[in-house]
Design goal:
The protein has an eight-stranded mixed beta sheet with strand order 6-8-7-12-13-11-9-10, with helices on both faces. Strands 1-3-2 form a three-stranded mixed beta sheet. With 502 residues, the protein is α+β, with helices and mostly antiparallel strands. It has two domains: 273 residues, Amidase signature (AS) domain (Amidase signature (AS) enzymes, Alpha-Beta Complex); 110 residues, no CATH class. 57% of the residues are buried. The protein contains 17 helices and 13 strands. It is globular, with a radius of gyration of 21 Å.
């Protein structure tokens, strides 16, 4: 091939070429490396290169390594997100200067399953510091840019992964979703992004649960079938896991081509947490609702009711507590406290605030977040799926969400002085909550409930920016999501729609 057709195949397509002997894994790895070296300077999606190890893996005979000869993704290049999964002997900075130079002592369970699936890791992708933001602009590595418009964000926290897949570096890349961090960059970069049910994929051996059970790992892909096949490859609990997702009835890949039947699908264009919704995001949902009606579904407009104002505050309270814990764990890894400048001022301020939150208040917030599932249970008893915008806005400009003015000055003080308790008493959580949801008010509630949800790339603005729509399923029911996603993909294909110049 040359290998000019590389980017026209999804991951399963490339694996099929390898299985039939039409291409060698070394050719795929070489093509991925060439594309990264050529285009990454424009995007800043890949921050660690693992080329030598990838080349060695590509030369292993089929079945000689950890992957079986018939592994579903044998020989396919892959990029890992530099945040949760660990790869023995490789750096893991988690987007922060605090962990610069730290090397993982062992593989995580997820890394092991990726390797058993036959994937060849060629590098690691950029992420915001500690995965905190819905944009990928860490001071440690610089911003990742959107292939559709280099002045715009690729989203976060899996922004490096999304930009890399959209630009054709690899057909699939690892991601994680604690408040929308797979779905947000999928929307920004015109990809399919599935957040599985809580407990569906492993976090061991180092992590029991992440962000009070809100966070889970999976991938970003161009096709629905790649996401489903990857979920088949990596799903299932690992020893000591605190959650176990309901078992699948059959392979997830089989669901993609299965007829979903006539479903009752609710939709809303109103933000789930108070925010203004851009007309393009409204139009994306209205068009998707019309398409679903054409496909035979019963589609009704109905807005789910839960205590959104309390949720917004409680999620932020949980987040600052988890940030304080993440910083403490990072300090333990390097054996000393963080120095000024090793953490971004926003991260340090959040960590100080989190350290000042009384244990009682943190526990109460966690309990109230759990009640979101109870509040939404009646809604999902009446509806098979919920359709919403993925985001309240198209991809925003690089730097649009950065702190400015008086806020930035206060954060500067907060990183240098122990004023977390004062900030808490002065109601800082309420101010943070009021400012936090303008970009992504649709995704986080379903991290709290643990329900599966995906972003579908069905709309582009007049100036060429992707706008995703979100489908949310019932707990444990990725099958219905994948059936409908596959049906929609066949009706309105998106795989071959590529960013200009990539």
């Amino acid at each position: 091939m040359g290998f000019s057709e590389y980017a026209t195949y999804d991951a399963l397509g490339l694996a099929d070429l390898v299985a039939r002997g039409q291409v060698h894994p070394r050719e795929l790895v070489a093509e991925a490396i060439e594309r990264i070296e050529r285009d990454n300077p424009r995007l800043n999606a890949v921050i660690h290169r693992l080329y030598d190890a990838a080349r060695r893996s590509a030369e292993q005979p089929a079945g000689s390594g950890v992957a079986a000869a018939d592994a579903p993704f044998r020989g396919v290049p892959f990029l890992a997100k530099d945040l949760v999964s660990t790869w023995k002997g490789e750096p893991q900075a988690r987007g922060t200067r605090l962990l610069a130079g730290w090397v993982a002592p062992h593989d995580s369970e997820l890394a092991t399953r990726y390797r058993k699936a036959g994937l060849i890791v060629v590098g690691k992708t950029n992420t915001p510091e500690l995965g905190l933001l819905p944009v990928t602009e860490p001071l440690a590595y610089g911003p990742t840019r959107n292939p559709w418009n280099l002045a715009r964000t690729s989203g976060g926290s899996s922004g490096g992964a999304a930009a890399a897949v959209a630009a054709g570096f690899v057909p699939v890349a690892g991601g994680g979703d604690g408040g929308g961090s797979i779905r947000i960059p999928a929307s920004c970069c015109g990809l399919f992004g599935l957040k599985p049910t809580r407990g569906r994929t492993p976090l061991g051996p180092d992590v029991g649960e992440a962000w009070q059970g809100c966070a889970i790992e999976h991938v970003l892909t161009r096709t629905v079938r790649d996401s489903a096949a990857m979920l088949d490859a990596i799903h299932g609990d690992d020893p000591g896991a605190p959650y176990l997702a309901p078992p699948r009835a059959r392979p997830f890949l089989a669901e993609v081509s299965a007829a979903p039947g006539r479903l009752r699908i609710a939709y809303t264009t109103r933000a789930l947490i108070k925010a203004d919704v851009h007309p393009e995001c409204v139009r994306a949902v209205e068009d998707a609702a019309a398409l679903l009606r054409e496909l035979g579904h019963q589609v009704v407009e109905e807005h789910p009711v839960f205590d959104a104002e309390a949720f917004a505050i409680d999620f932020v309270l949980m987040l600052v507590g988890e940030t304080a814990a993440d910083v403490a764990e990072a300090e333990a890894l390097i054996g000393r406290p963080a120095r000024i400048g090793e953490l971004e001022k926003e991260t340090m301020a959040l960590a100080r605030l989190g350290a000042a939150v009384p244990a009682r208040d943190f526990a109460l917030a966690s309990r109230r977040l759990r009640r979101t599932s109870r509040q939404l249970a009646g809604f999902f008893a009446r509806h098979d799926l919920l359709l919403t915008p993925t985001l309240a806005q198209p991809p925003v400009a690089i730097g649009a969400l950065a702190s400015k003015g008086a806020e930035a000055a206060l954060l500067e003080v907060a990183q240098r002085l122990p004023i977390g308790a004062l900030l808490y008493k002065l109601g800082a959580l309420h101010r943070i909550a009021a400012n936090a949801w303008g970009f992504a008010p649709f995704t986080a509630p379903f991290n709290a409930t643990g329900q599966p949800a995906c972003s579908l790339p069905l709309h582009w603005t007049a100036d060429g920016l992707p706008v995703g729509v979100q489908l949310v399923g019932q707990f444990g029911d990725e099958a219905t999501l994948l059936r409908v996603a596959g049906q929609v993909e066949r009706a309105q294909p998106w795989k071959d729609r590529r960013p200009p110049g990539f």
